[in-house]
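look at this record:
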Amino acid sequence: METLELETSSTGIATLTLNRPTKLNAANQTMWDELHQTFQAIRTDSDVRVLVITGKGRGFCSGADLTARGDGPRPHQLTAMRKITATALALHDLPQPTIAKVNGVAAGAGCNLALGCDLIVASDVARFSEIFASRGLSLDFGGSWLLPRLVGLHKAKELAFFADVIDAAEAERLGIVNRVVPGESLDAFVDDWAQRLAAGPPLALAQSKMMLNQSLNRSMAEALEFEGASQTVNFGSEDTVNAMIAFAEKKTPEFHGR
C-alpha cells in the first residue's frame, strides 16, 4: 500500500501503521481508501485476533490533509466525505478488539481515529485536539458520536468549540485514553495488551464489544435479551466448552474462535 503498512504476527496481532511521516501521517484520499479497504479485509479475517493502529515517525495522525491535491478531477466534497464516513464506520464495526497506540499528535480526524478504537494507549508526549473549529470545520470521523460518550456532553462541547490541544495526562484524566506510558515503554505495553487480547476468546470478545458499543441505544431489557442470546452462542462454542474443562483441570485455556 502507498500510505499504510500492515504486519500480522503468528499470534494474530495485526499492526497497521499510518505511513506519511513527513505530513505527520495526515490522511489524503489514498489513505482513506486504503484504510477502508484494510478494515473491510480484517473484518472477515479469522487469523486476525486484534488490531493495533499507530503512526510512523513522531505523529499518530494530524487529521485530514487539507493541502492534498491528487491528479485528475477531484470528487465532489460530499462524495469524499462519504468515503471518510464509511471508513469510520468500518473501524467501528470491526469484531476484533482494536488498540490505538498514540505516539504523538492526534488531531481532527486523527484524534477521532484514535477515539474510534476500543482502547487507547498514549505516549507521555502525545497530544490530542478536536481541531476542526480552528479550520472553520465541524466534527467528523465519528467525533460527534464518540466524544460525548467518552467525556460527557458539556466537556465534548468545550473540546469541539475551542479546539484546544490537550496533553496525554489531561486526556487520561478526562477518560479519553486508557493508559499513558513513557515513550520508551509504549511498544512493550501495547504489545502486552495485544498479546493478552489475541489469546482471548474471539467470539466472546466480539459479542461483548458489540453489546458495549450499542449499550447507550438500548433499554435494560433489550441489553439483557442480547446478553442471553450472546451467552447462548458462547455455550454452544468449542471455546467455552474447552475453557470450562481447562478451568476444572486448573489449566490455561486456548481459544480458537470456534
Notes: The chain is about 45% helix and 15% strand.
